[in-house]
Amino acid sequence: MTEEERALIKTIKSAFPRKKWKGRACPHVCGECDEISEFVSGKTWEDLSAHDVFWLEPGPALFSTEAFAHFLPAFMVRSVEDPVETDVGFDNCLSCFLPHTIHEDPGHPVLDHLNERQTLALCDWLDWAIRGEIEQIHAIKDVEPYGGLMSRVLRKMTGDPLRRLAWHREIVDNLRASVADD
């Protein structure tokens, strides 16, 4: 882990309180939502491991906005500590704030439940994630014979990934600026 990543974790930890979650986390009633709600009941975000974040990958879509705001730092911190273990939990959380296409809304209702320090910590985490994705794209491009093929596959799936990531950076910059305007 880099010094920058340690500082990011410290920023996130200092921005979010460590309160136990009380009540139902998922407003919908079904087996999956019941299981998730029961699992997180009485837990702080720090109680969740990287494996828990992986297991909770549908959480960002199923949680109430209050529950998502409560457990958001677990998704952020654990993805920095162990991006491989958090895997789809990390990706699903990230896609709540950085959509795949311009037809999706870059906002998320959870933003209304974050204070200024928490929103800025989220922006720092999103910046970290974007930089990591850019590094991965450049690494794939540099590997032959796979670089050319992988670049074409990525482009076919997502359009120009670097253009999408530049758009993501613009979303984060706008979010950061909106906090400064308040």
Task: Give structural attributes.
single chain, mainly alpha, 9 helices, 69% helix, 0% strand, globular
Quick recap of the structure?
With 182 residues, this protein is mostly helical. It has 9 helices and no strands.
Secondary structure class reads mainly alpha
Kindly state the number of beta strands: 0
Overall, the morphology is: globular
Strand content bin? under 5%
- The number of helices is 9
- Rg for CA atoms: 17 Å
* Helical coverage, percent range: 55-70%
> Sheet bearing the most strands, described?
none
The overall pLDDT, averaged over residues, is 83
String of helices and strands: HHHHHHHHH
List segments where confidence is low: pLDDT < 50 over at least 5 consecutive residues: none
Head-to-tail CA distance between termini: 34 Å
Describe this structure in words.
The structure is a single chain. With 182 residues, the protein is mainly α. The protein is 69% helix and 0% strand. Helix 1 packs antiparallel against helix 5, helix 5 crosses helix 6 and helix 7 crosses helix 8. The longest helix has 27 residues. The protein is globular and about 40 Å long. The protein starts with a helix and ends with a helix. The mean pLDDT is 83.
